[in-house]
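[Meeting: bench + compute handoff]

Bench side (C.D.) handed over the final construct sequence. Compute side (W.E.) agreed to return the predicted structure before the next meeting so the bench team could plan truncations. Sequence as handed over:
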Amino acid sequence: MMHIMRKSQSTIRAAAKEASHERIVRAAARAIRRSGYGGTGVADIMKEAGLTHGAFYAHFESREAMLAEAADQAGAEANAFAAKVVAAVPPEQALRAMVQAYLSREHLASIETGCPVSALGSEMPRQSPEVRRAATRRIKEMMDLVARQSSDWGQPGAHERALVTVATMVGTLMLARAVDDPALSDSLCSAALQALAPSVA
């Protein structure tokens, strides 16, 4: 009986630690998009997650390890949203719907919960290898999702178009967020949408 109780308590503690870990990673994924990698402090993230600063090292070996998990989580969230957009429309409308959602005013305003590539792209070259590796994996996943919406998916042309589509989407959103002119921001998104998915614009 004691053995069962100990095992049960151990399982409960492990589950609680896992839940805390997930809270930290989700908070960090929001923070890196909101404040950038350099502006993301451990103390603030732990506070946002509802935990003490001292508990950090029970979950991560280093700040870089946390940032790598945050980059992975942010990318996973963005790709899951894109997949949801694709699943909600007929296959022939999937790419247009994805581009339209990405370049929407809602996404433009949602830097904290939106695509981490457009929020953090200019910072990536200066990050640690583990952070870049995590981000790269999710970027490749994003490119693959775009390529799969092509009628000739699996052919070299589909992959090349996906690279151009993703690069255009990300670059457009970065520029649209950078400028302080709402009309120019709208024009950038409209022009990219017209170039990538003419029948939507």
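W.E. noted at the follow-up: Residues 7 and 13 are 10 Å apart (CA to CA). C.D. will use this when planning the next construct.
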